[in-house]
Amino acid sequence: MGMKSHSFRQLQADRSLSKQNKPVDRFLEITDSALELTKLNQRVQSSEGENGAAVIFTGNVRLANEQTGLVGMSLEHYPGMTETQLNQIIDNAISRWHLTKVVISHRVGYLMAGEPIVFLGTAGLHRKECFESAEFIMDYLKNDATFWKKEHLVIDSISEERWVEAKQSDIDSIKRWQAN
User: Fold this and answer.
1) How are beta strands 109-112 and 70-77 bridged, if at all?
2) Domain that holds residue 172
3) In the 8-state DSSP scheme, what is residue 35?
4) What is the rounded distance in angstroms from the CA atom of residue 83 to the CA atom of residue 10?
5) Which helix (H) or strand (E) holds 176?
6) CATH number of the domain bearing residue 173
7) What strand order describes the sheet that includes 147-155?
8) Residues 111-162 pLDDT 10s
9) In what order do the strands lie in the sheet with 9-17?
10) Would 6 be classed as within a structural domain?
11) CA–CA separation, 30 vs 50, rounded Å?
12) pTM for this model (two decimals)
Protein backbone atom coordinates (compact mmCIF):
# COMPACT_ATOMS: atom_id res chain seq x y z
CA MET A 1 0.00 0.00 0.00
CA GLY A 2 2.99 2.31 0.19
CA MET A 3 4.15 4.75 2.80
CA LYS A 4 1.53 5.97 5.23
CA SER A 5 1.48 9.49 6.59
CA HIS A 6 0.32 9.84 10.18
CA SER A 7 -0.43 13.55 9.95
CA PHE A 8 -1.72 13.81 6.40
CA ARG A 9 -3.88 16.82 5.73
CA GLN A 10 -5.04 17.72 2.23
CA LEU A 11 -6.79 21.03 1.81
CA GLN A 12 -8.25 22.26 -1.41
CA ALA A 13 -10.38 25.33 -1.81
CA ASP A 14 -11.14 26.68 -5.24
CA ARG A 15 -13.89 28.09 -7.36
CA SER A 16 -15.26 25.92 -10.15
CA LEU A 17 -17.98 26.94 -12.55
CA SER A 18 -21.54 25.71 -12.02
CA LYS A 19 -24.13 24.76 -14.64
CA GLN A 20 -24.98 28.45 -14.98
CA ASN A 21 -21.27 29.38 -15.37
CA LYS A 22 -21.13 31.01 -11.95
CA PRO A 23 -18.35 30.27 -9.47
CA VAL A 24 -18.81 27.37 -7.05
CA ASP A 25 -16.93 27.45 -3.77
CA ARG A 26 -15.51 24.01 -3.15
CA PHE A 27 -13.49 22.74 -0.23
CA LEU A 28 -11.98 19.27 0.11
CA GLU A 29 -10.08 18.02 3.12
CA ILE A 30 -8.76 14.63 4.19
CA THR A 31 -7.47 14.77 7.73
CA ASP A 32 -6.38 12.66 10.67
CA SER A 33 -7.63 15.36 13.05
CA ALA A 34 -11.12 15.63 14.51
CA LEU A 35 -13.58 17.24 12.10
CA GLU A 36 -14.34 20.84 13.02
CA LEU A 37 -18.08 20.56 12.43
CA THR A 38 -18.95 24.12 13.46
CA LYS A 39 -16.39 25.66 11.09
CA LEU A 40 -17.37 23.32 8.27
CA ASN A 41 -21.05 24.11 8.79
CA GLN A 42 -20.31 27.84 8.78
CA ARG A 43 -18.35 27.44 5.54
CA VAL A 44 -21.45 25.94 3.88
CA GLN A 45 -24.00 28.26 5.49
CA SER A 46 -22.22 31.60 4.91
CA SER A 47 -23.91 33.45 2.10
CA GLU A 48 -24.40 36.86 0.60
CA GLY A 49 -27.76 35.82 -0.80
CA GLU A 50 -26.53 33.33 -3.40
CA ASN A 51 -27.76 30.32 -1.40
CA GLY A 52 -31.45 29.50 -1.26
CA ALA A 53 -30.77 26.23 0.57
CA ALA A 54 -28.02 24.16 2.14
CA VAL A 55 -27.87 20.51 3.13
CA ILE A 56 -25.47 19.18 5.76
CA PHE A 57 -24.64 15.50 6.23
CA THR A 58 -22.37 14.04 8.89
CA GLY A 59 -21.55 10.32 8.94
CA ASN A 60 -20.37 8.82 12.24
CA VAL A 61 -18.78 5.59 13.45
CA ARG A 62 -21.83 3.63 14.59
CA LEU A 63 -21.98 1.99 17.99
CA ALA A 64 -24.89 -0.13 16.84
CA ASN A 65 -23.76 -2.21 13.90
CA GLU A 66 -24.70 -5.57 12.50
CA GLN A 67 -21.79 -6.71 14.65
CA THR A 68 -21.95 -6.16 18.39
CA GLY A 69 -18.85 -5.03 20.19
CA LEU A 70 -17.71 -2.31 17.79
CA VAL A 71 -15.39 0.07 19.65
CA GLY A 72 -13.73 1.92 16.80
CA MET A 73 -12.68 1.99 13.19
CA SER A 74 -9.47 2.67 11.28
CA LEU A 75 -9.67 4.41 7.93
CA GLU A 76 -6.91 4.48 5.35
CA HIS A 77 -6.76 6.09 1.95
CA TYR A 78 -4.54 6.34 -1.10
CA PRO A 79 -3.11 9.90 -0.94
CA GLY A 80 -3.38 11.72 -4.24
CA MET A 81 -5.72 9.17 -5.81
CA THR A 82 -8.46 9.69 -3.23
CA GLU A 83 -8.42 13.48 -3.72
CA THR A 84 -8.56 13.04 -7.50
CA GLN A 85 -11.56 10.72 -7.17
CA LEU A 86 -13.36 13.06 -4.77
CA ASN A 87 -12.72 16.04 -7.04
CA GLN A 88 -14.17 14.11 -9.97
CA ILE A 89 -17.28 13.31 -7.90
CA ILE A 90 -17.61 17.01 -6.99
CA ASP A 91 -17.16 18.00 -10.66
CA ASN A 92 -19.91 15.57 -11.68
CA ALA A 93 -22.28 16.99 -9.04
CA ILE A 94 -21.54 20.56 -10.11
CA SER A 95 -22.27 19.64 -13.74
CA ARG A 96 -25.67 18.13 -12.78
CA TRP A 97 -27.04 20.65 -10.25
CA HIS A 98 -27.04 24.43 -9.73
CA LEU A 99 -24.71 24.47 -6.72
CA THR A 100 -22.94 27.40 -5.10
CA LYS A 101 -20.85 25.41 -2.59
CA VAL A 102 -19.57 21.90 -1.98
CA VAL A 103 -17.65 21.11 1.22
CA ILE A 104 -16.22 17.66 2.03
CA SER A 105 -14.07 16.80 5.03
CA HIS A 106 -13.18 13.12 5.56
CA ARG A 107 -11.29 11.53 8.45
CA VAL A 108 -8.55 8.96 8.24
CA GLY A 109 -6.76 7.20 11.08
CA TYR A 110 -8.32 5.65 14.16
CA LEU A 111 -11.79 6.82 15.19
CA MET A 112 -13.74 5.86 18.29
CA ALA A 113 -17.39 4.85 18.10
CA GLY A 114 -19.52 7.97 17.79
CA GLU A 115 -16.87 10.15 16.11
CA PRO A 116 -17.66 11.83 12.79
CA ILE A 117 -16.07 10.17 9.74
CA VAL A 118 -17.30 12.49 7.02
CA PHE A 119 -18.87 15.92 6.68
CA LEU A 120 -20.59 16.93 3.46
CA GLY A 121 -22.30 20.21 2.76
CA THR A 122 -23.92 21.40 -0.45
CA ALA A 123 -25.51 24.78 -1.06
CA GLY A 124 -27.45 26.06 -4.01
CA LEU A 125 -30.47 27.93 -5.20
CA HIS A 126 -33.07 25.29 -4.30
CA ARG A 127 -33.43 22.57 -1.65
CA LYS A 128 -34.15 19.74 -4.10
CA GLU A 129 -30.82 20.09 -5.88
CA CYS A 130 -29.00 20.39 -2.55
CA PHE A 131 -30.58 17.19 -1.23
CA GLU A 132 -30.08 15.29 -4.49
CA SER A 133 -26.49 16.44 -4.96
CA ALA A 134 -25.62 15.48 -1.36
CA GLU A 135 -27.04 11.99 -1.90
CA PHE A 136 -25.21 11.71 -5.23
CA ILE A 137 -21.88 12.75 -3.68
CA MET A 138 -22.23 10.36 -0.73
CA ASP A 139 -23.32 7.45 -2.94
CA TYR A 140 -20.29 7.88 -5.19
CA LEU A 141 -17.94 8.62 -2.28
CA LYS A 142 -18.93 5.29 -0.68
CA ASN A 143 -18.36 3.43 -3.96
CA ASP A 144 -15.58 5.19 -5.86
CA ALA A 145 -13.25 6.91 -3.38
CA THR A 146 -10.33 4.78 -2.20
CA PHE A 147 -10.95 4.59 1.54
CA TRP A 148 -10.43 1.33 3.42
CA LYS A 149 -12.19 0.72 6.72
CA LYS A 150 -11.20 -1.72 9.43
CA GLU A 151 -13.57 -2.34 12.33
CA HIS A 152 -12.15 -2.83 15.82
CA LEU A 153 -14.35 -5.04 17.98
CA VAL A 154 -14.24 -6.41 21.50
CA ILE A 155 -16.38 -9.51 21.87
CA ASP A 156 -16.31 -11.47 25.15
CA SER A 157 -13.12 -9.60 26.16
CA ILE A 158 -11.39 -10.67 22.92
CA SER A 159 -10.20 -7.98 20.52
CA GLU A 160 -10.83 -8.53 16.83
CA GLU A 161 -10.20 -6.53 13.68
CA ARG A 162 -11.86 -6.99 10.32
CA TRP A 163 -11.87 -5.13 7.05
CA VAL A 164 -15.25 -3.74 6.00
CA GLU A 165 -16.54 -5.19 2.74
CA ALA A 166 -18.59 -3.19 0.25
CA LYS A 167 -22.31 -3.54 0.91
CA GLN A 168 -24.64 -4.46 -1.93
CA SER A 169 -26.97 -1.63 -0.87
CA ASP A 170 -24.14 0.88 -1.39
CA ILE A 171 -23.34 -0.60 -4.80
CA ASP A 172 -27.02 -0.50 -5.76
CA SER A 173 -27.34 3.13 -4.64
CA ILE A 174 -25.41 4.48 -7.64
CA LYS A 175 -27.62 2.73 -10.18
CA ARG A 176 -30.27 5.42 -9.93
CA TRP A 177 -27.72 8.10 -10.86
CA GLN A 178 -26.48 6.12 -13.84
CA ALA A 179 -30.03 5.89 -15.20
CA ASN A 180 -30.38 9.70 -15.20
Assistant:
1) antiparallel
2) 17-179
3) P
4) 8
5) helix 175-179
6) 3.90.1170.40
7) 109-112, 70-77, 147-155, 158-163
8) 998 899 999 999 999 999 999 999 999 999 999 999 999 999 887 888 889 8
9) 9-17, 23-31, 99-107, 116-124, 53-60
10) no
11) 27
12) 0.85
